[in-house]
Amino acid sequence: MLSRQQLEILNRKTIRYPLQIAEKDYMLALVLQLISQSPLSKKLAFKGGTALHHCYLEQSRFSEDLDFSSIQQSFSFEEVLKVLSSVDYLTIKKHYQSVATMKIERLLYSGPIGFPNSLKLDIDLYQEVLLPVQEMVYRTSWGIEFPVRVMDIREICAEKIRAMSDRARYRDFFDVYLIQKTYKLELQEILDYVSQKEIRKPITKASILRNWNMIGEQKEIEKQAIFYSQPIDDSLIEEMLKGFPSFEIG
Question: pTM surpassing 0.90?
Answer without folding.
Answer: yes
